[in-house]
Structures are given as C-alpha cells and as structure tokens.
Design goal:
Blueprint (H helix, E strand, L loop, with lengths): L6 H4 L28 E11 L8 E11 L15 E11 L4 E10 L5 E3 L6 E6 L7 E6 L4 E7 L4 E7 L6 E2 L5 E3 L7 E18 L2 E18 L5 E11 L4 E9 L4 E9 L7 E5 L3 E10 L6 E10 L4 E6 L5 E3 L7 E10 L4 E7 L11
Antiparallel strand pairs: 1-2, 1-13, 2-3, 3-4, 5-6, 6-7, 7-8, 8-9, 9-12, 10-12, 11-12, 12-13, 14-15, 14-23, 15-16, 16-17, 18-19, 19-20, 20-22, 21-22, 22-23
C-alpha cells in the first residue's frame, strides 16, 4: 500500500525535500533510502506458479515504507535517536481458493527493531516480524536484483523470493518525475522494474511450495503525494501477454471524480520503448463493484481501459476480497489485489485502491 497512515507523519515539520524534474538518478545507489523526504516506499507485487505454469497459484505483495518523522536526524549522541519509522505490509492470495492474508509491521528505526541501511551495504532495509514470529522482514540488493522475505507464523504465511533484473529501469514520468496534481509540489520521484523473473519459496498453512513467476517493483519517494482536495487513487500495474506493460495513476477528488491522471506504456517492440500518457490519452470505465463486509467500503472490481492508440483491456479482480485491513490504531484499510486481463489482449496485473470508505483518506 502506498499510503502512509501513521500519525507521526502528520506531526512532522514542513521543511521536506520535494520531487523535482532534474533529480540526478544514480543506480544502484537510488535503491537505498533517501533521507529528507516525508515518505518513501519499495513495493513488489507478483504472480507465482507452483508447477503448473499455465496458471499462477499465488499472488503476493511486499512493501517497505520509510515514514519521515523529522527532515533531519536530531543532533543527539545516541543510537536510539531516529528521524524515521519503518512500516512493512505483506499479503498473499491463494488464487485457487480465494483466501487472502495480510500482515503488517511498524517500528521506529532504532537498534533491535528496524533499520534502513546505506549503500553499498547488501541490505536495503529490515524490520522485526510481527509479534509471535521469530524472524526478520528484509529487502536486499544482490547486485543482479532484489531479494525479499516476510513471515507471519500466526497466519501461517511466509515467503522468501529472489528477483533478477533483465531489462532497463522504467522512469514513471519524464525524467522520473510523476505528477499527481496540477499543483507544483504534488509529485514523486518514481521508477519501476515491470518484469522481474522471480523464484523462491512460499509457506502457506504449513505447506512449503517452490515457486516461480514474475514481479513488478515500484520505488517512489516524495513529500506531497496528494493535493489537499484529493481523496485517494486508483493505481494499475498491468503486464500483457504480448510483452507490453501499462501503469496508470488515477487521482480522485473528494466527490469520487478523477481529478488528475497519468500513465506509462512500455512496449519493447515499439519505436519508443516508453510512452507517457496524459489524462486525455486513455479512459477507464468502472463496470462492477465489490463491497467489503468488514469495512463497508465499496470498491471498483471490474474495469474497461481504452487507450487512444486503440488498445482496449477488460480487467477484473482475480479474487473479490483482497482488502488489506490494518490492526493498528485507526483501522486503516485499502484494496490491493491481483487482477486478470481478458478479451483480445490478455494478461495479469495488480490494482491498488485507496481512499475508499468513510474518512479513509491517505495522509500523504
């Protein structure tokens, strides 16, 4: 989940760095944390096979958030002083049964609990697992890709996955600046790897599976993701079977209308590998909904996406209930789930829906 629902972020002082159109990107250094920004996230989703490569058995999400408490670390001689907190979200959906499990961690960045490391350390970030699980959640850089691990023994879920970068980075927005509104500061520095070959192990209800599949990785950092009048967003990451990838960001106003939208089409066979889309270049129509019996939120669950280039996609939730419901104070929730693409163009992907439900606006 991209939204950082945590009170300390709201209490932070306002002198934060903002996203700019001339950010000096440098890899692999930019895979590590960026102090001075209010929010930052490392986000992985994917579809995993357990033997039958014709259909994925599991879908997964893994996210680390860095939440800025102050723009600079306080000048105190103590290892327990911190300027940020780390939050982790992990979810697995069994696509064969429809069961969805969500887990979370939240710690200040202090010894024994959690930390973001500095380049060139192999580890990017880590955190203690949820209470009752003697393990770490972690994200590493291997030199060839990302490695990640999460576990929640009480829910019978864990995974440890290795990804490999086979293609060039995709900047989401020209020069990696992704605007979220017409206002100048509502933007993020944003890049992706849209097709990461993935393998590892996944434990589900006591059974261990060897898994393979493909993942999508997003990295964003910013200090003002939503404009004041915006309520949330609908985000699509879609991988088509013909090799094309599509990212769409639809920012919603408080009345539910689309306030600002952008996208990126990655076409490895085209004359321009990456094509940036403005709001006038595509249309997203909601064809169906699902209402959560737990929170009462009503989410879109089926869509038709039309691009001016002629591409039309029929997208539907692979499982209706993929709502992530936090157990932290405040009861924050959002829908984050696997989708399937039908029709003339086929494929799979993930959709994230934030800001649905009464008083559920993400404070970023």
């Amino acid at each position: 989940m991209r939204a950082i629902w945590f009170a300390i972020a709201l209490l932070a002082t306002p002198e934060w760095r903002v996203a700019v159109d001339d950010y000096p990107w440098s890899f692999p250094e930019d895979h590590w944390a960026h102090d001075g920004y209010r929010t930052e996230w490392w986000y992985f989703t994917g579809h995993l096979h357990t033997g039958d490569v014709s259909r994925p058995r599991f879908a997964y999400q893994f996210t680390f958030f860095r939440i800025g408490i102050t723009e600079e670390r306080p000048a105190l001689d103590s290892a327990w002083v911190t300027s940020s907190a780390i939050m982790g979200h992990a979810a697995v959906t069994d696509l064969s049964t429809g069961r969805h499990v969500f887990s979370e961690v939240l710690h200040r960045e202090i010894p024994l609990l959690a930390a973001f490391e500095e380049h060139p350390a192999e580890r990017i970030g880590w955190s203690r697992a949820p209470a009752g699980t003697k393990a770490l959640w972690w994200l590493d850089w291997s030199g060839e890709g990302f490695e990640l691990s999460a576990a929640d023994d009480r829910q019978g879920m864990s995974f440890r996955l290795t990804t490999r970068i086979d293609d060039a980075v995709v900047f989401q927005g020209p020069l990696g600046l992704s605007r979220k509104a017409d206002s100048e500061n509502a933007a993020s520095q944003y890049y992706s790897f849209t097709r990461l070959p993935t393998e590892g192990t996944l434990t589900w209800d006591g059974e261990r599976f060897d898994v393979r599949g493909t993942s999508w990785m997003d990295k964003e950092f910013s200090s003002s993701h939503l404009a004041d009048h915006q309520a949330g967003w609908d985000w699509f990451s879609l991988r088509l079977d013909d090799g094309r990838d599509l990212m769409l960001y639809l920012m919603r106003a408080s009345d539910g209308s689309v306030d600002f939208a952008s996208g990126t089409l990655v076409d490895p066979t085209g004359s321009d590998r990456v094509v940036y889309l403005d709001e006038d270049d595509f249309e997203v129509s909601v064809l169906g909904h699902w209402s959560s019996p737990s929170t009462g939120a009503r989410y879109p669950s089926r869509w038709r996406i039309r691009l001016d280039s002629g591409l039309t996609l029929e997208v539907r939730a692979a499982v209706p209930d993929q709502e992530n419901r936090s157990r932290l104070p405040g009861g924050v929730y959002y829908w984050e789930g696997a989708v399937e693409i039908d029709g003339r163009a086929t494929g799979v992907g993930f959709v994230e829906l934030t800001g649905y439900g009464e008083g559920n606006r993400p404070p970023v």
